[in-house]
Amino acid sequence: MKQNLSALLGGMIFGAGLVIAGMTNPEKVLAFLTLNQNWDPALILVMGSAVVVATIGFWAASGRDTPLFDTAFHLPGSTTIDSRLVAGAGLFGIGWGISGFCPGPAIVGLLSLDVRAVIFVIAYIAGVKLFEVWERNKSTPVMQGDG
Amino acid sequence: MFDAILGGVLIGAAAVWIFLSLGRIAGISGIAANVLSGAGFGWPLFFVVGLGAGGWLAYATVGAPAVVAVDGEYALWLMLGGLIVGFGTRLGSGCTSGHGVCGISRFSSRSLVATIIFLSVGMMTATVLAGLGLR
Asked: What is the model's pTM?
């Protein structure tokens, strides 16, 4: 219960931050990603201030043995920079540059019934499912035809 | 400018809260994948509901998003973008939140590399499409 309420609160702060920062407006995001005479650098400040706050906060919390409402921290273990990371980040960049949406703002937009976000998220879900199918087929040996 | 900094501070504070309270990384593509996998009423679903509620509250304060007409061509771009972002963020294990905010703040070299790639590829894509007059 405490975990769920903490997640709800964290999500609310995150969602409000995305809206106030302008991240939920794909036109503004594209104005940041498009390097021409109309370039809008404001989103550098969004990421910059988020990283400063998170760096200080993670550092301050790093002395704890456990989080407040769980028995252990759950942190990504992988440290290798592999082709999946590089290709995945590259694909994400292409999709972000095409649409101006990344996952968080798209979910906020979906739940506010922004038509652009609704269309994006339907395709986003299809992309996630496509990845899962691709991943499954890759890990199981393909049956060869007998012809 | 003030809005950008305030928004960023809130995003950073939310990431710290999720780390401090749950011991988790507030990576939204990962959280979304967890919800989509039908994991049920766990903390990821509550986080996603919170995203919507917080966004809605902020819209109620700063004004609702502009209603933008979406013609067929724009819809196709949005669908193409969504499909690629869905696949790419799973393959690359993260997006702007998990790699860009949380990972860099934890000094993860994986996340730093991912962020440099998606930012530069995103800029190249948007700039080329705008240059061609496509967007």
From this structure: 0.94
